[in-house]
């Protein structure tokens, strides 16, 4: 559950269609209404540019675990993260295209030991 310390967040419940925090909901800046993330019952879809980390390194918990609806992509993303044609786990797992044959660039911030399979979540 999100804590709205100092009332800096605006919530919009998409189910109740009200400005309250009730999942699923959209969360934005209360001052400028810039979107920050969508909070679901079991997931958060975040806008990466909304987060700035002090040391410039993205914590593992904030790194993506999958690309969804990749069959409708507008560009290739050769990052070693699993790509699903639809929802994660309930659609076709798609092959990543890369210029380096047999090599996956990264997954969860760690180079893969076995280039044929993605690294496991920590």
UniProtKB/TrEMBL annotation:
This is CENP-V/GFA domain-containing protein. Residues 81-122 are annotated as: Disordered. InterPro entries: Mss4-like_sf (IPR011057). Residues 113-122 have a biased composition (Polar residues). Transmembrane segments: none annotated.
